[in-house]
Amino acid sequence: MYTARLFAALLLAVVCLATQEEYDNDILEEGITLTDSQYGSLWPLPQKVQMSTVVFKLSGASFQIVDAKESSSGASCSLLQNAYRRYFEYIFPSARKQGHVKKKTPASAVSELQVWITSADTECDGFPNVTSDESYQLSVDSPVSVLKASTVWGALRGLETFSQLVYEGEYGAKSINRTEISDFPRFAHRGVLLDTSRHFLPIKVILANLEAMAWNKFNVFHWHIVDDPSFPYLSRTFPQLSQQGAFHPYTHVYTPSDVKMIIEFARLRGIRVVPEFDTPGHTQSWGKGQKDLLTPCYSGASPSGSFGPVNPILNTTYEFMSMFFKEVSTVFPDAYIHLGGDEVDFNCWKSNPDIQKFMEQQGFGTDYSKLESLYIQRILDIVSSTNKHYLIWQEVFDNGVKMKADTVIHVWKGNQQQYQDEMSRVTASGYQVLLSTPWYLNRISYGQDWQATYKADPQDFNGTDAQKKLVVGGEACLWGEYVDATNLTPRLWPRASAVAERLWSDKDVRDLNDAYSRLAQHRCRMVQRGIPAEPLFSGYCAYEYKGV
Amino acid sequence: MYTARLFAALLLAVVCLATQEEYDNDILEEGITLTDSQYGSLWPLPQKVQMSTVVFKLSGASFQIVDAKESSSGASCSLLQNAYRRYFEYIFPSARKQGHVKKKTPASAVSELQVWITSADTECDGFPNVTSDESYQLSVDSPVSVLKASTVWGALRGLETFSQLVYEGEYGAKSINRTEISDFPRFAHRGVLLDTSRHFLPIKVILANLEAMAWNKFNVFHWHIVDDPSFPYLSRTFPQLSQQGAFHPYTHVYTPSDVKMIIEFARLRGIRVVPEFDTPGHTQSWGKGQKDLLTPCYSGASPSGSFGPVNPILNTTYEFMSMFFKEVSTVFPDAYIHLGGDEVDFNCWKSNPDIQKFMEQQGFGTDYSKLESLYIQRILDIVSSTNKHYLIWQEVFDNGVKMKADTVIHVWKGNQQQYQDEMSRVTASGYQVLLSTPWYLNRISYGQDWQATYKADPQDFNGTDAQKKLVVGGEACLWGEYVDATNLTPRLWPRASAVAERLWSDKDVRDLNDAYSRLAQHRCRMVQRGIPAEPLFSGYCAYEYKGV
Fold it and tell me: Is the peptide bond before A143 cis (omega within 30 degrees of 0)?
């Protein structure tokens, strides 16, 4: 139920899509025309939206977000109580307390949002997981609106949606339309990968981006925590790893309490923290604090002084990995660990006489992918024994390593044809799959690159319905070669938002014009909430970013 | 005079260029090897540097920057007094005041930097201009170092250089090597273009970037202040221009006092502010507040409702422009105004019957570039009458408009061959020239794109020595389609630093390895001073950016 007048006001308040001829032409060159979305600034678009032209007001002096009487959740659920406060402040950044005289709420106002958790187990004190129910129903009416969800996870998503429905009407009055929304995610795994090895990311940066993830209904923080350049994870069992392997052992590490805080901050927003400890490649920084872990490379008959991937032929390697992953499995509560397994360079293994001998003994010939598989197999067994499931980069599948049936294969390589073929192969083998290839957001180009990001679809490949169901979702990846605290946030947002909508909304939500209009407003909302999300094109936000 | 030990310490303190094999390989892929520069973190590299291995210490409790006794400048020159305080704080971000007991300065310390202005006219209260003498001599010795310059402009450059020589030695002690530097810029015009029309840039963002410009010895802020999307310049004479043409008439405008503050802030750092008021194209926003200024476009026999470039056939146009540029010439003290003149679209002019008639009367046939030239010619005369010189985009030259001999032609179009040919043609015609084509920093690509930026040279074209001397310099341009306060600063720095060195240092300073090492440290210094300059590659700064 769309009225041009209403949304024209909304658009004016939030973002100016200029009307100059030349400027319009520029936009048209990009294949986008300027139309106001009937869905205002909703992002990602809910599955079912019925919006009426009836407008209600909200007063910062009297509006409340409260537990519904029927709700199985109450004052003791600090996850929800925190969320109520957070979203109240997003809606009313500068609300004043009501005076002594209690005025009657006018008929045309929403005085309360009641949050009703229907399951006996609210999951308030649990951790979100891949089977969490994130669905919700939102009914915006006067004087009372109701948000109904099975668990707290759906309630969090619904609170975000409610906050996105509020806009500034005439005279800056907070307004909301009578609306019915029924919503649920298309995919269960909607992630963002951040890389804290190529550059260290201060806690503050990680927390700010977790916050922005929640605004986009992302639910997985894939923490690529260590890699070749540095090892910032402070391990209680092996403190030498970060002592020697971090850029700096005090200023550039994540202590156990840092990690705990990040996990809790994420949990409060319905976000899982899936750590990645990538082996046997990408481990140069591990070698600094753990003697004999890496393979000594040879130059002719003698060691060259440099080191290759993890040494897969020593018992000490597996003893170390068992202890290390035992710790990791207790530090990170998520049911999954990402085990990496990508880009193993065989040159160093090939140069090493002990490895050559081992290859001979095993009858591997010169097929070093068999050696890699042997290593990975043992790591998978180690991690399985800690009762964790695993995600793994596609090479492990490509090399034919035997994996548990519930393993998730993470596809990241190739052009469109290649990754779609890989999705077919993986799902034909019965494995679950996660897509990232089209969403390597570290790769930048001039112009509105969010459009290509937006168009990619993880179920676009040849396969049966059963195969398509094995797609658990996707992840936007921001590898760290060229980003750190100085530029990560504007480079991630709103580009990752395009991925967020693809993974949450119905597969038929593909209209670039409608998306442009909503996304421009969504990015201004992120800016107003304090995140330096970069612009899509010329224009402005009513509240510009206040930092430098 | 290079000692590996010294600079190893320096590098460790400022930036870690990791030593992992894989990481090195990545760097090598980019064509860069990791070597420490013998010039530490100096950027841009001075013309002559003699650095000894003798190390002095500096104490924050006693070190002073003072006027030399012989200096023609004194306490009344607030430009220099401000600069002394600013640079003291860069060197000692957290210095404590000296206690009661005055200790004798040890023999191995620098206790004073004496700044000696040698000209009778220090130019302290003037504005920098294209002939300003920015040369200086710096002698770092114990107990007294001396910075000698003809005017305050050279002193400002020398203070920056002195601050870049200071590094943290063992135990964090501020250290500096005995050094002799004799320095001057290769080009007189070293600019950065910022665009405040496609997105409004808050004052704070402009000031922060002026500060960073000074650290890079840039000396021109080319303020592309208005354009099609918005008109944020608040004109005293024609307040309707911003009232109607700005994104918002209160929150998205530059008031006269804003402009004054920006000019003074820039002056204190030896930076000229050259405003651009681009006509007759790029003027959609002008038309909103100034009736009949733009050409009404026709669709068949009747006006289409949209407008084209400035209407060049009305007397009212020139009356308006005379008054407008009279104001501009008093508001902006610089001797130059940039008059634009680029990308005039003839379609609207062609559609308008009045224009067609005028073309006929003038005997222009269908050559609309003659109409454009007629307009530009009159604008140049108007601006000349205000005693200003002008810069102009290359199209004006290409169209054969008659210009005063001291006009500067700004080259921005084409590929390398094309812009080099244009530089040849412009200088063969005896005009001065400014290069920007290879330095459109709004264009981004994945990886270390600073290298291509760095390699371009404005004197690389076919021409005589006399022609080469007509190159006044260049400008890094950051057009605003995709940047605003959220991402402008990290996108500009340190990418613009590559342009800064090309324009300041000797033409033979071209070693990418040496540049990489110095630039990585220079970017960390910018971060430490509070500017979110983005990383060149994996690694870290001792002091990471503290914002989000």
Answer: yes
**Is there a contact between B190 and B215 (Cβ–Cβ < 8 Å)?**
no
Q: How far apart are CA A158 and CA A220, in angstroms?
A: 18
Residue with the bigger pLDDT between B106 and A412: it is A412
Residue appearing with tokens 């169901």: A469
Q: Which helix (H) or strand (E) holds A278?
A: strand A272-279
Question: How many DSSP H helices and E strands does chain A contain?
Answer: 19, 19
Measure the CA–CA gap between B505 and B509, rounded to whole angstroms: 7
Report the pLDDT value the prediction gives residue A391, as an integer from 0 to 100. 97
Structure token pair of residue A270: 């319905």
Contacts of B17 (CB under 8 A, 6+ apart): B11, B34, B517, B520, B539
Residue with tokens 């921001």: A478
Q: What's the confidence (pLDDT) of residue A22?
A: 32
* Residue owning tokens 């929800």: A80
**Chain B residues closer than 8 Å to A533 by CB:** 486
Are β-strands B136-140 and B144-149 bridged in parallel, bridged antiparallel, or unpaired?
antiparallel
Q: Does B340 touch chain A (CB under 8 A)?
A: no
**Least trusted range by pLDDT, from A170-174, B38-42, B159-163, B387-391:** A170-174
d(CA A438, CA A448): 15
- From CA B443, how far away is CA B191, in angstroms rounded? 17
Residues of A in contact with B285 (CB under 8 A): 20
Residues B546, A202: C-beta atoms closer than 8 Å: yes
Read off the amino acid at residue B70. Answer: E
For residues A510 and A502, what is the distance between their CA atoms, to the nearest angstrom? 8
Task: Looking at the complex, report in whole angstroms how far the Cα of residue B451 sits from the nearest Cα belonging to chain A.
Answer: 14
Closest CA to B536 of B511, B519, B512, B513: B519
Per the CB < 8 A criterion, the answer to whether B169 and A512 are in contact is no
Distance between CA atoms of residues A200 and B544, nearest Å: 9
B86 phi, psi to nearest 5 deg: -60, -50
The band of A9, judged by pLDDT with boundaries at 50, 70 and 90, is: very low
Q: How many residues in chain A?
A: 548
Cα angle value A340/A341/A347 (rounded, 5°): 140
* Cα-to-chain-centroid distance, residue A42: 18
Q: Classify burial at A315, counting beta carbons within 10 Å of its beta carbon; exposed 0-12, middle 13-18, buried 19 or more.
A: exposed
The answer to whether residue A2 scores a pLDDT higher than 60 is no
In chain A, what residues touch B490 (CB-CB under 8 Å)? Answer: 486-487, 490
Least confident of A6-20, A257-271, A441-455: A6-20
Number of H helices, E strands in chain B: 19, 19
Active site residues of B: 343
CA A347 from centre of chain: 35
The residue ranking higher by pLDDT, A13 or B491, is B491
Q: HSE (CB half, 13 Å, CA atoms) of B466?
A: 5
Give me the half-sphere count of Cα atoms (radius 13 Å) on the Cβ side of residue B296. 13
A18-32, A297-311, A386-400, B252-266 — which is least confidently predicted? A18-32
Of A20-24, A201-205, B419-423, least confident by mean pLDDT is: A20-24
Inter-residue contact B408 to B472 (CB < 8 Å): yes
